[in-house]
Write a structure and sequence with these properties.
Protein name: PNPLA domain-containing protein
CATH architecture: 3-Layer(aba) Sandwich
Keywords: Lipid metabolism
Number of domains: 1
Radius of gyration: 19 Å
Number of helices: 9
Shape: globular
Number of strands: 8
CATH topology: Cytosolic phospholipase A2 catalytic domain
Structural class: alpha/beta
InterPro entries: Acyl_Trfase/lysoPLipase, PNPLA_dom, Teg/CotR/CapV-like
CATH superfamily: Cytosolic phospholipase A2 catalytic domain
Length: about 270
């Protein structure tokens, strides 16, 4: 019951970014879960006419952002990051740094409400939620940003770096930082064979998942090495592949979460958190 009370910083990418904003705004985890259960079909609303218009994702995004904006507006209203009860760090991907820059490029953008020169306290929660969750192909870009998952699918290290930002003065000692990392579930994937002489066609079905899931496991490894026993991750195994927009699997995902053995996690929380 004291988990959120004793939490200082909440970090999340994409849909996890929206969840982080909700928790930081004071909503309970149950409220945030119910928001997704009730709103998923509206967020991923589609029609045959829309599919034809976009040539089934070939020339246009599969879904619009209008429903998502309405849902976020209902939850957050005109609340800004500076109004949140907790500190947040929400990654997105800035597709264009602008023509006035000496070196014009795309780059990571972390929206946060820490008090420092590059803070984003004036940003509206609705806008940040849309920017971090604008998954390419599924949704249009928002204000020049797309889904933070393209660069930070596991944002745990972003949270650690934000906590240690020396620009705000002496950072918090590592020994005083405890991190609970919650994943969205992992699928069992592998490539069989020791000496594969494959070209683009045979690597194509695997390479995206290798990059995304490999990056997630890399961050997990780094946090373990840096924080040691002060770090704990929960990331259940999914028995099957579940699409990002497959709302029909929501009850199944909840069941998987409810069946996860949380005894090690509760023990860790008792020793390190509450």
């Amino acid at each position: 019951p004291n988990l959120m009370r004793d939490t200082d910083l909440i970090v999340g990418t994409s849909t996890g970014g929206i969840q982080a904003l909700g928790l930081a705004a004071g909503y309970s985890p149950l409220h945030v879960r119910e928001m997704y259960v009730e709103s998923a079909k509206d967020i991923f609303a589609d029609s045959l006419l829309d599919d034809i218009k976009n040539l089934w994702k070939v020339i246009g995004a599969d879904y619009g952002t209008e429903n998502m904006r309405e849902i976020l507006k209902f939850q957050f209203g005109d609340k800004q990051l500076k109004d949140l009860e907790k500190k947040v760090a929400i990654p997105s991907f800035d597709l264009d740094s602008g023509p006035d820059r000496k070196f014009r490029t795309w780059k990571l953008k972390v929206f946060h409400n820490f008090e420092c020169p590059d803070g984003d306290g004036e940003e509206f929660c609705v806008d940040v939620g849309l920017r971090t969750s604008a998954a390419p192909i599924f949704f249009p870009t928002v204000d020049g940003y797309c889904d933070g998952g393209v660069v930070a699918n596991n944002p745990a290290l972003i949270g650690l770096a934000q906590s240690l930002d020396v620009r705000r003065g002496p950072g918090m000692p590592l020994t005083q930082i405890n991190m609970l990392s919650l994943g969205a579930g992992r699928s069992a994937r592998w490539v069989e064979g020791d000496n594969l002489d494959w070209g683009a066609m045979r690597w194509a079905p695997h390479i995206l998942y290798m990059l995304l899931e490999g990056g997630i496991s890399m961050i997990d490894f780094q946090c373990q090495q840096i924080l040691g026993e002060n770090y704990h991750r929960v990331n259940p195994i999914l028995p099957e592949k579940i699409g990002l927009d497959d709302c029909s699997k929501t009850p199944e995902i909840i069941e998987i979460a409810n069946e996860e053995d949380l005894k090690p996690s509760l023990k860790w929380l008792e020793e390190h958190w509450v």
